[in-house]
Amino acid sequence: MYLVLVQELAAEENRSKMEGAEQRRPSRRLLTLRRTRRRERKAERQLIEAWRRAAELHGRLESADY
After folding, report:
1. How far apart are CA 58 and CA 64, in angstroms?
2. How many CB atoms are closer than 10 A to CB 34?
3. DSSP per residue, 6-52
4. Which of 28, 42, 47, 60 is 20 to 30 A from residue 13's alpha carbon, by CA?
5. What is the mean pLDDT of each run of 10 residues along the chain (66 residues)?
6. pLDDT at 56
């Protein structure tokens, strides 16, 4: 009887750990997705800023030519 109880407790603990692991995986995926989106937005902002600087420098060079 004691071994059956221990076995059932171990099985329940294992099920609990497996469910916890399955629940953590989506949250980790969500965290990775959020991180990736933040990086994309940052890269977009940097690209837009680089375009602005390039346009500004281009404008200065054109005005210096005249």
Report:
1. 10
2. 10
3. HHHHHHHHHHHHHHHHHHHHHHHHHHHHHHHHHHHHHHHHHHHHHHH
4. 28
5. 76 80 79 90 93 94 81
6. 95
pLDDT given at position 54: 93
Residue found by looking up tokens 């916890």 in the block: 20
Q: What type of residue sits at position 47? A: L
Alpha carbon 57 to its chain's center = 35
Structure tokens at 45: 């902002």
Identify the pLDDT of residue 66.
63
What pLDDT does residue 52 have? Answer: 94
Amino acid of residue 6: V
Residue 39 exposure: Cα atoms within 13 Å on the Cβ side: 6
